[in-house]
Fold:
Amino acid sequence: MASIQKYKLKDGKERWMYVIENGTDPLTGKRERIVKRGFLKEKEAIKAARDMEYEMEKWNLDFKNKITFQELTDEWFKYYKSIGVKKATIRIRIYESNKLLTYFSNKKVRDITQVMYQRFLNEMNKEYNINTLSGINGTAKMIFKYARELGVIHNDPTEFAKLPKKIKTVEEIENENVQNVYFEKNELKEFLDAALTHGKKDDYFIFNMLAWTGMRLGELLALKWSDIDLENRTISITKTLYNPNNNILSHELTPPKTSGSVRTIDIEQELIELLKSHRLLQKQVKLSLGTKYSDFDFVVSKLRPPNLGYPYYLKLVNIRMQVILKHTTIEKHLTPHSFRHTHTSLLAEVGVPLELIMERLGHESDKTTTKVYLHVTKDRKKEASEKFGKLMRSL
Structure:
């Protein structure tokens, strides 16, 4: 309902105006007002306000009836980016929303039903794993919640949707081999030996750092010398490298994956010696090249032209790893992330509890890590059972 008000001009003459409250802008959270001044008579202001309210209602109704899922998603992204979400997260949301758009793009939002959305999830289940599907569903929930806030819909089609579960066959379960996600001890030695013999000058250092610390690759590439305390033998992990376009000249340091990822880990003397050796090599390169070396203080930096001193991007390290694997007898499909699972297996083998391993790795829960841990410790559990049986039989 419009508010009709009288006001005075500087010369003392009276005029009329209307003020229409237009709700709250979901992008800014600020109240919106439509104000029109300059009417000579009160009845003119009343008529103009009614005409404006009619047009606004007509536009709002038209907008709610006709807006497509593509248009809604575009509007939602404007809002989502305005609340300070990390770039890496936005990139994930774009990927997930694109999956939704392949199915719903030109459909009117009001026409999307719960049955339609459940059918979409069932179709996606044939192509994507449960983690990807859960992410897509999470993005859909945020978009449709935004639609409710705008008043476009009253019922959220995602509210009662169920993520379909893939039921594994007996053959699939029997063929599962958790050992394929990490290096066995002899394989790790073979790989590191190959990195030393066939790798570039810093490959051996990079892959030893991953093996000894269990860091994520992005965390290692973001590491600076100021994060390393050689005297107290600790590494502080406070950031990760963000470079989605794989452009070595373009990088950004962002907070780690979760708050639990910020951590300080203890390291052994062997790694201290390796760090000292690598720092000496890095200093020699700096001295020989002078201003040609861009010093960002990164622990892992380009030591060969071009772009000396810049941090590697993740894909480049993976390429180096695949080259080295060709010089080994290892037939598993392993990536830099495999070193985290290898770290888990080695810690489990020497009896470190799972909760301490999780703390060192910097995550609260991870299915693969748990699987690796249980696989490595199953013989110890069997031994414990046998000891218990022996005790009971002696009673």
About this structure: The chain has a mean pLDDT of 89. The radius of gyration is 30 Å. Residues 45 and 51 are 10 Å apart (CA to CA). The chain has three domains: 3-66, 69-149, 180-381.
